């Protein structure tokens, strides 16, 4: 029986197998012409898929590891571990991650491989926390890359193209508390005139908008316990818990109204025990250089009427720059423009070219794990290290064992 991704937007072509040991995993890698790792299934396209006669490897049956090195301030964790479980264990030991994605449901290796991120002016993506990787290569042998390995910057956001990642080592910091507050109806003139200040008014800030009307409908601000609480007047502070998608169940979102709580219960937008976002949806996202954010904001607002029939909500947030070759924030801070669409594949693909013809000339880079229509040539212009990555891939996987239609088409 065929299996689907989280949103029901993609049906995988290959069977899913769950090895229980690293030895079994290595045999599966060498025993098939094409293999791919399958994480928590939050990619929206054929990125994790492979050929029908290949195999998809889910690593959730492998032994679990969460090992904190207090001296180095790192944690080494099994790649299939969900961030929700990692957060609970780290906090129990007095440690934390500097950032989390909006969904704690994601697997560590999958989120890292696609450049997934949270928000914050000084906060990098989850991939930028990586200090080491272990996995199984195309020849079935185990490999390990440490922080000083010259291949590491090209091997973190690697789209599953270099091997099956079994463990990831991440930077950690001492545990901390946050409060989350939501502000409603921030006028567009205030937003555009003070965009940097708005996006920097908390440890993590997200603007939620339909792009229509006179105001940004919601601003979610997550602040450290010792930080001054923001004042986004003339917006008004919410006096009840809200969901960013109109009509959705507010039980699914993390606690708001300024109540202090541990980092892993505030940084995500959604609770691990509930279906996040809308569930049945598509997503797109584009990373725009921070100094072009206002241009991008204006450009997307000009498409509001075209986007409205398909859009559930859009989110604008910040990500600090890093040195990872295929990262959306490679060598520069970015503002991420995220679109949560209704699950209408044809309709979304009809409007994406309109979005991209406005954002790509501004230097935007599409998020690898979400829906986009950018071509191989577009990506080569957006990701300056793409050719270098191709060379690394040819060296690490000369027989294209970890290839698939997505990589064939775009790389």
UniProtKB/TrEMBL annotation:
The keyword Oxidoreductase applies. Residues 9-175 form the FAD-binding PCMH-type domain. Keywords: Oxidoreductase. Gene3D superfamilies: 3.30.465.10, 3.30.70.2520, 3.30.70.2530, Uridine Diphospho-n-acetylenolpyruvylglucosamine Reductase, domain 2 (3.30.43.10), Vanillyl-alcohol Oxidase, Chain A, domain 4 (1.10.45.10). Coiled coil: none annotated. GO terms for cellular component: membrane. This is FAD-binding protein.
């Amino acid at each position: 029986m065929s299996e689907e991704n989280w949103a029901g937007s993609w049906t995988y072509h290959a069977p899913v197998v769950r090895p229980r040991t690293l030895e079994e995993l290595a045999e599966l890698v060498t025993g098939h012409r094409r293999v791919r790792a399958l994480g928590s299934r939050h990619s929206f396209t054929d990125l994790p898929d492979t050929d029908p006669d290949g195999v998809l490897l889910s690593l959730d049956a492998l032994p679990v590891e969460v090992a904190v090195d207090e001296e180095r301030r790192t944690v080494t964790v099994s790649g299939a571990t969900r961030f929700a479980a990692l957060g609970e264990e780290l906090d129990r030991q007095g440690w934390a991650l500097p950032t989390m994605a909006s969904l704690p449901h994601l697997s560590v290796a999958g989120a890292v491989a696609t450049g997934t991120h949270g928000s914050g002016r000084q906060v990098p993506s989850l991939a930028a926390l990586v200090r080491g990787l272990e996995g199984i290569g195309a020849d079935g042998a185990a490999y390990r890359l440490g922080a000083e390995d010259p291949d590491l910057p090209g091997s973190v956001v690697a789209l599953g193209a270099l091997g099956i990642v079994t463990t990831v080592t991440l930077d950690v910091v001492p545990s901390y508390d946050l409060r989350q507050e939501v502000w409603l109806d921030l006028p567009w003139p205030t937003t555009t005139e003070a965009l940097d200040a708005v996006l920097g008014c908390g440890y993590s800030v997200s603007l939620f908008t339909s792009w229509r009307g006179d105001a940004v409908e919601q601003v979610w601000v997550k602040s450290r316990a010792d930080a001054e609480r923001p004042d986004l007047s003339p917006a008004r502070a919410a006096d009840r818990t809200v969901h960013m998608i109109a009509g959705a169940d507010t039980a699914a979102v993390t606690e708001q109204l300024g109540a202090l709580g541990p980092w892993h219960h505030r940084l995500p937008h959604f609770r691990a025990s509930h279906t996040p976002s809308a569930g049945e949806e598509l997503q797109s996202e584009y990373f725009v250089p921070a100094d072009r954010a206002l241009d991008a904001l204006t450009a997307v607002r000009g498409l509001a009427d075209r986007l409205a029939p398909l859009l559930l909500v859009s989110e604008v947030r910040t990500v600090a720059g890093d040195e990872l070759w295929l990262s959306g924030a490679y060598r520069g801070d970015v503002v991420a423009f995220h679109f949560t669409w209704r699950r209408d594949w044809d309709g979304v693909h009809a409007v994406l070219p309109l979005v991209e013809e406005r954002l790509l000339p501004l230097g935007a880079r599409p998020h690898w794990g979400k829906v986009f229509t950018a071509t191989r040539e577009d990506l080569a212009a957006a990701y300056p290290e793409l050719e270098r990555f191709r060379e690394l891939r040819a060296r690490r996987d000369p027989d294209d064992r970890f290839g698939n239609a997505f990589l064939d088409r775009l790389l």
